[in-house]
Design a protein that fits this description.
alpha+beta; 434 Repressor (Amino-terminal Domain); Beta-Lactamase; 2 domains; five-stranded antiparallel beta sheet; 12 helices; 42% helix; 13% strand; elongated; MLTR_LBD; Lambda_DNA-bd_dom_sf; Helix-turn-helix domain-containing protein; Cro/C1-type_HTH
């Protein structure tokens, strides 16, 4: 089972090992380095903490670094903005709203998803459970209403659905991006049992487990996917994820054809009649 303490330890180790001492202007050492990246004492010096403190953090010995220490470690390890936010979440140093995850669509957002037609669109919560979708999304991917409620999850469909998972032309990139989103969601909601269960199930997949161990967290709100559609052939779709200010636990994903051929192919697909919401 993954825990914030264990993940913080592993994340610090992997980010330390990825750094090249020469890029940080550190002096050359006479003794050859037995492991890649920085030594713990070098990270400690750069962050202004003791080497023993870094050792205990990397061993997962239950420490909870302060916000100042997290900021110092982020600078020392040259973390990206997404990685820095992830480290703050792992250390419990970002305030979280204590609310139950949304399990039903906000009615106005469900109507928005329907009104976005003819663009494929769906509404999700923070763990990517699909709460609403329109006919175009059903035609592009699948009608989530045909799945059991426990399987109406965009990440599960992309990573584990027996047909959809093989439809991506660049599946490794899709898995890598999905992992970044799941890892970021888990760091912000580490006590969500449903999210932990989803991650545990995905870890049974060999490719997922291999990429999960790399601890990438560069989640993005936009991107593109190329799919082999059984009826329309190869389709390229750009997507954007929007977070409503009034309902930040829900997010709207909107797809757009990436080229004219994909636009023509998508417009020719029959739209199944869907309820537009999970339930």
């Amino acid at each position: 089972m993954i825990t914030p303490t264990g993940e913080l330890a592993a994340f610090l180790r992997t980010r330390r090992e990825r750094l090249d001492p020469r890029d940080l202007g550190l002096p050359a050492r006479r003794q050859a380095r037995r492991t890649p990246g920085l030594r713990r004492e070098e990270v400690a010096e750069l962050a202004g903490v003791s080497t023993d403190y870094v050792v205990r953090l990397e061993q997962g010995r239950g420490l909870r670094p302060s916000a100042d220490v997290v900021a110092a470690l982020s600078r020392a390890l040259r973390l990206s903005p997404a990685e820095r936010a992830y480290l703050f979440d792992l250390a419990g140093q970002r305030p979280r709203a204590v609310t139950e995850p949304a399990t039903t669509a906000v009615p106005s957002l469900a109507r928005l998803v329907a009104d976005l037609s003819p663009l494929p669109a769906m509404l999700m919560n923070h763990r990517y459970d699909v709460l609403a979708w329109n006919g175009e999304m059903a035609a592009l991917l699948l009608d989530f209403g045909t799945l059991p409620a426990s399987r109406r999850n965009a990440m599960w469909v992309c990573l584990r659905h027996p047909e959809i998972r093989e439809s991506y032309v660049d599946r490794e990139r899709v898995v890598r991006e999905g992992i970044a989103h799941l890892r970021t969601a888990w760091a912000a909601h580490p006590e969500d049992p449903a999210l932990l269960g989803l991650i545990a199930e995905c870890l049974r997949d060999e490719d997922f487990a291999r990429l999960w161990a790399e601890r990438d967290v560069e989640a993005t709100g936009r991107g593109s996917k190329v799919l082999r559609h059984p009826a329309a052939g190869v389709l390229a779709v750009d997507f954007e994820v929007l977070l409503p200010l009034g309902d930040t636990d829900q997010r709207v994903l909107i797809g757009r054809p990436a080229d004219e051929a994909s636009r023509t192919a998508l417009s020719s697909l029959p739209r199944p009649v869907v309820s537009g919401k999970a339930g």
